[in-house]
Amino acid sequence: MPRPMRGGKKAKDAKGTLKRLLKDLLRGRKLRLSLVFICILISAGAGAAGSIFLRTLIDTYITPMLETGSHDFTGLFHAICIMAGIYIAGILSSFTYNRLMIVIAQGMLRDTRDRMFSHMQDLPIKYFDTHTHGDIMSKYTNDTDTLRQLISQSIPQLINTTATIIVVFVSMCYMSIYLTLVVIVFLTIKFTFVGKLGGKSGRYFVKQQESLGKVNGFAEEMINGQKVVKVFNHEDKARDDFDRLNEELCENATKAHSYANVLMPIMANLGHLLYVTCAIIGGALAINGVGGLTLGSIVSFLQLTRNFNMPINQASQQVNSIVMALAGAERIYELMDEEPEKDSGHVTLVNARLDNSGNICEADQPTGMWAWKSQNSDGSVTYTQVRGDVRFNNVDFAYEPGHQILHDITLYAKPGQKLAFVGATGAGKTTITNLINRFYDIEDGKITYDGISINEIHKNDLRHSLAIVLQDVNLFTGTVMENIRYGKLDATDEECIEAAKRANAHDFIMRLPQGYDTVLAGDGSGLSQGQCQLISIARAAVADPPVMILDEATSSIDTRTERIVQQGMDALMEGRTVFVIAHRLSTVMNSNAIIVLDHGRIIERGTHEQLIDQKGIYYQLYTGAFELE
Amino acid sequence: MLKRLFGCIREYKKAAILTPVFVAGEVLFDSLIPLVMSRLIDNGIEKGNLKYTVISGLLMLLLAAMGMTCGIFSGRFNAIASAGFGKNLRHDIYHKIQEFSFTNIDKFSTGGLVTRLTTDVTNIQMAFMMLIRIASRTPLTIIITLFMTFSISAKLSLIYVCVMPVLATVLLFIASKAHKIFERVFDTYDDLNNVVQENLLGIRVVKTFVREDHERKKFNKISASIFSDFTKAEKILSFNQPTMQLIVYTCMILISWFGARIIINSGATELTTGELTSMFAYSMQLLMSLMMLSMVYVMITMAQADAERIGAVLMEEPTMQNKPGAITDVRDGSIEFDHVDFSYKGDKNKLCMTDINLNIKSGEVVGIIGGTGSSKSTLVQLIPRLYDVTSGSVKVGGIDVRDYDIEQLRESVAMVLQKNELFTGSIKDNLRWGNENATDDEMVEACKLAQADGFIREMPNGYDTHIEQGGRNVSGGQKQRLCIARALLKKPKILILDDSTSAVDTKTDALIRAGFKSYIPETTKIIIAQRISSVQDADKIIVLDGGRIDGIGTHEELLKTNSIYKEVYTSQIKGGEENA
After folding, report:
1. Does A152 reach chain B within 8 Å, measured CB to CB?
2. What is the 3-state secondary structure of B131-162?
3. Confidence class for position B104, pLDDT limits 50, 70, 90
4. Residue of A141, A119, A176 lying closest to A294 (CA atoms)
5. Which residues contact residue B256 at a Cβ distance below 8 angstroms, ignoring those fewer than 6 apart?
């Protein structure tokens, strides 16, 4: 798999990832986040007010009352009421920011998932062919989940901490510059520790998320292939392989969490060291009368040191979730940074009609007639009727550089023609169809559609004008009707049923427990492979495109049914271009042209009769096919 | 169920126990330090006694060092215990899944099982980590704090005692409400996984029909429902923190009020202002501890839903199990179907196969022909016991398949499935599925028989070529031949090919069958095919129609007697005649 090792590289990206994450978080949430910010400050203020209040309580009320022996509690009562008011404000604001933060955090997760999925839809087929599905799935669940705690807990905590630290730090500077210098030295040491341990931990968190992706990928693949696992008694091997990945995950998780967990006690006790150092240096300074320190001010300073340490220690508890979230975010951004399919096409597909003078012009309703609309450089618009004329001119192609699959392919399909590809497996038949709809882009040569280079056609419109039925059928969870309608989202029930009839799928669908409303599981379980193919043909039929590609579309359908399907399809495709790939020569015999491929080259072409007369490869295949005679 | 889950701690029990032990040490040193601190201030700084300051400072550092050591150990053991616990959970779940029959798997869906293995376990792992560390730390801190407050003023401390039950009730109420929603949330996660998985599998279809926007909408709907459920549940939980604040602040107000009264009324004999300050400080500490506890509480509430989901998998009874004293030796490759009825749902009223009677001798070649949906695949899947019959019996080697040890039975029956699955790994890795100890020569031999050797050699890395998930980088026909080679390596007593040469050209198909004849003559071969040519030289051909046997016989016999067979035959021949 073309995936470079990148254990070390990642930790360095942490800053960039964090920046990007914050930017994504702020987008469209600035107002709410500032409200959260204010609420956190109020809530923290209310907490701090508590300790100040006690001082006032003692100094202004209790001590004088003790001295005067007064038993008038009204003043005290008022003070307590004010305090209660402050506390209530604190509680309300903490309630508010908690709730706001939930919506913000969950909203961010939702946006992340949606954006990731949306971007993924634009990625080229190659991406899907080279990544395990489970690993991609892991990004939507495990990696996105890491952000939850970061946003809903760590960030508020960090805001709180920062605010407290600033207030305390200012008071410290005010009290003693010398001692503050000591504090700064300690802070530097502390942050070095956080950086070192956090970085180490971060590296392992990245590894942990990767291992998690691997476990996810393995499990997904194996559970999907469970039938093969069972048929081959492969349960033990599958277990061993899983255990190996699981062990790796466990190791990385242990290391990641160990570093993060150890950080907390180290931070707390470094705080104690700071305290003692300040006490001794301050004491020495005061006794020797340096720096204008009094003993009283040292006591206050020491109190501040304690207040200073507390929030830092609390913040260090968040290191786990921060580092983990960064690891998760990086894997998410990895997907988001994948290059989407290139689409520089400017020619679009429009509904068309003929105006009075017989010229093609745009129609605003479906007319059954389509046209390519291209904007010329001088601003004028040219319409070309979509007819389904597909030509390959000297096309070369390789999936991987240096390993050429197609060599100098030149062919043409005139509108309404049925063109068949025949050849041994691996000869390049499917590759050709992958090029027509631009799943992959050609290296050299040119493919034109109605005389327009396919690179100039807007990709979606190009694909709209083609329907492909693949050998590996993929249906989606939903009813049979929904699956057929996938070909044309605004098709009526009648249209869908009509298409199903044409595909000869109607009869078996009616025999299903709920007919067209039968819910299919995603893998079409409960249906046979052949039945799935019939539904997928109906799905293509309802799309009703000018060009159709059938890639082994009927391989799992018995020949009797296939004949009927083919009659239906032939009626449907009359006047349209069809590319057919099939092993069954009976499927391709009535094509206008048969192209025999071998190792990515065209070796024979012609009609069935012409090829038989040639007595070449096709003839051999043909006679081989009928060895029973 | 919890017992089953916690049973997964196993070898990490030591670490799981040591964590709270070291945490206790940490808490102890943590609470001693403030005492030394106050003496350092009172007797050292305030009196200007530098020597005392240094000595008590050093004492404090010693305590801090010990506290740190405990902290480091507890952190380390904590990580070991929780990661280990997670590992064992995943291990147990995955191993359990391997025991599942397809009925079991269908119940949970692939996406659901994958979520359980990762997301659910991760949540539990995190909650467990919090549980053994924070949850042992906070109660301890709370007890020490309460002890301190009681020793200062028992009267004032009664306030705490009155308030605690209120707190507990509120918290429990909140949790039970949130729990219900969390249960739903994680089921939505399964849907999310399923939608993404389907999208990934069918991406070619999505792109072909330009349905990206449609898929986006589908996905957005699910992610929106996760959003709304999660928000709802967390909103309920968000009452936690303010509730705690409310209660602790109330306590503080009450302490201020009553405290002040006590001081003044007793003339500062019963309580001093200094002690009131300490009471206040302890209340703050209490608040902090409770906040931590509420955080853990949230995680545990969430983990509870995860735990239930995992528990459901671990407690699920595999519907297919070995009988005690199961037979391990499969005598030969003879197969017998005796009045077999079958329904995937086990429902007698919805049979998809009715009254199948068959007798296949060991070593025979049997072809199966039938229209789309005539239950050909279903029939053969009963032989290696992928599913159990609804009624009747299937016998292999004269013995009911349900009496065999499942593993031994499947060892003797090789099946090439219609939907061929290859797995991520090299070609060799994939071939070794058939026989783990296969030598290179054996692999090449099997591939030659399956007519795969040729194209494998043409690949850039030959037998070491990497196969992507699902075999996406080889063509359909190549995939089928690799799967056949894989099955051949098992050297089975029964070989079943479920339409596994459909993408292979007829010539190659014939070569493969010829190879079978000479290489594995003893093996019973069952060939499901669409092409008459694939089955016409079989000893016996079975014609299936709508889940029933329509005819059995040789090619010649069936041509004479069976109308379906004849029709299929002519449909395939006719084209040839027209052009001949």
Report:
1. yes
2. HHHHHHHHHHHHHHHHHHHHHHCHHHHHHHHH
3. confident
4. A176
5. A53, A54, A57, A80, A83, B276, B280
Cβ A57–B256 below 8 Å, yes or no?
Answer: yes
Structure token pair of residue A418: 């049925």
Rounded-to-integer distance, Cα A345 and Cα A461, Å: 9
CA separation for the pair B109, B193 (Å, rounded): 10
Check CB contact of A67 with chain B, cutoff 8 Å: no
Best mutation target, B187, B207, B479, B567, to test chain A (most A CBs within 10 A): B207
Contact criterion met (CB < 8 Å) for A141 and B204: no
Cβ–Cβ under 8 Å, residues B365 and B289: no
The neighbouring-strand residues paired with B370 are B544
From B408, which residue of chain A is nearest by alpha-carbon distance?
A233
Cross-strand pairs, A478: A520
Domain B2-314: CATH class, spelled out: mainly alpha
Determine the angle formed by the axes of helices A74-121 and B154-201, rounding to 10 degrees.
10
Q: Smallest CA–CA separation between B170 and chain A, in Å?
A: 16
Would you call B226 and A110 a contact, using CB atoms and an 8 Å cutoff? yes
Among left, alpha and beta (phi > 0; psi -120 to 50; other), residue B358 is: beta
| B484-528 pLDDT per residue, tens | 999 999 889 999 998 888 777 777 888 899 888 888 889 999 999
B41 contacts in A (CB within 8 Å)? 279, 299, 302
**Measured distance CA(B254)–CA(B511) in Å, rounded:** 94
Whether residue A232 contacts residue B416, with contact meaning beta carbons closer than 8 Å, is answered with no
The b/e string for A83-106 (b: 16+ C-beta within 10 A; e otherwise) is bbebbebbbbbbbbbbbbbbbbbb
Question: Residue A425 has what pLDDT?
Answer: 67
Percent pLDDT > 90 in chain B is 31
- Note whether A118 contacts B118, CB cutoff 8 Å: no
Task: Spell out the alpha helix ranges (H) of B404-475.
Answer: 406-412, 427-431, 440-449, 453-458
A74 residue type, one letter:
T
Report helix, strand or coil for B416. Answer: strand
Task: Measure Cα distances from B256 to A5, B38, B288 in Å.
Answer: 61, 22, 19
Q: How far apart are the first and last CA of chain B?
A: 72
Contacts of A298 in chain B (CB under 8 A): 45
Judging contacts by C-beta atoms under 8 Å, the chain A residues touching residue B76 are 258, 261-262
Q: Would you tell me how many other CB atoms lie within 10 Å of the CB of residue A339?
A: 10
> Strands across the sheet with A577-581, in order?
A466-469, A547-551, A577-581, A418-423, A593-598, A601-606
Judge: B490–A232 Cβ closer than 8 Å, yes or no.
yes
Range with the poorest average pLDDT among A244-248, A611-615, B34-38 = B34-38
User: B362 — contact with chain A (CB < 8 Å)?
Assistant: no
CA angle A522/A524/A528 to nearest 5° reads: 170
* Secondary structure (DSSP) of B322-347: PPTT-B-----S-EEEEEEEE-TT--
Residue whose structure tokens are 């106050």:
B38
- Going from the C-alpha of B479 to that of each of A231, A472, A556, B19, B408, the distances in angstroms are 17, 12, 15, 52, 26
Q: What percent of chain A has pLDDT over 90?
A: 21
CB contact under 8 A, A223 and B105: yes
Using the beta-carbon criterion (under 8 Å), do A275 and B37 form an inter-chain contact? yes
Residues A526 and B344 sit within 8 Å (Cβ to Cβ): yes
Question: Could B242 and A98 be called an inter-chain contact, meaning their C-beta atoms sit closer than 8 Å?
Answer: yes
Question: B391-396 and A519-520: which strand pairing?
Answer: unpaired
**Separation of alpha carbons A264 and A624, rounded Å:** 76
